[in-house]
Amino acid sequence: MIDPNSLPYRPCAGIMLLNAEGLVFVGQRFDSQLDAWQMPQGGIDEGEEAETAAFRELQEETGIAPNLAKLVARSAGEHFYDLPPHMLGKIWKGRYRGQRQIWFLMRFLGTDSDIDIATEHEEFRAWRWAAPEQLTNLIVPFKRELYANVIAEFSPHL
At CA 135, angle to CA 132 and CA 120, rounded to 5? Predict the structure, then answer.
């Protein structure tokens, strides 16, 4: 059994992308059979700025070019989640206990036709827009508290 306290958190950038109607982009991951939807997120490479990682991950996961997203807000600090015990050692080559995430709120300036999840780094099998208040019910249970905290932090802009 892996002691999670012996592992670090993976640095990550998360993106809450709002469309013109105030709905949030969510996708269903290829590597999960759960009926769960998540916002785009991904690792921050060594030496990479979190904001740069956020725009890179947005393009890698959604096909949305950086000029079609406008930065609105950045989380004041990091948000953390721990992997459930049954997932420890199985993802990220077993090197992390969970993630420490810096979140970015962005406004989508394009149209749905600008979204193409069939990217070189394809992660989502489906996508849709969801109301912010639905997000905590759509995400996997172990990320619900993190999503609630991100929504609360960005609520003045929603």
Answer: 105
Using DSSP's 3-state secondary structure scheme, residue 100 falls into: strand
Q: How is residue 97 annotated by DSSP?
A: S
What is each CA distance from 9 to 3, 18, 109, 124, 148, in whole angstroms?
Answer: 13, 27, 32, 23, 20
Angle at 144 between CA 138 and CA 147, to 5 degrees: 90
CA distance 140 to 137: 8
Burial status of residue 137 (CB atoms within 10 A of its CB: 0-12, 13-18, 19 or more): exposed
* CATH, domain 4-157, list 3.10.290.10, 3.20.20.370, 3.40.718.10, 3.90.79.10: 3.90.79.10
Q: What is the pLDDT of residues 104-152, one digit of tens each?
A: 999 999 999 999 999 988 899 999 999 999 999 999 999 999 999 999 9
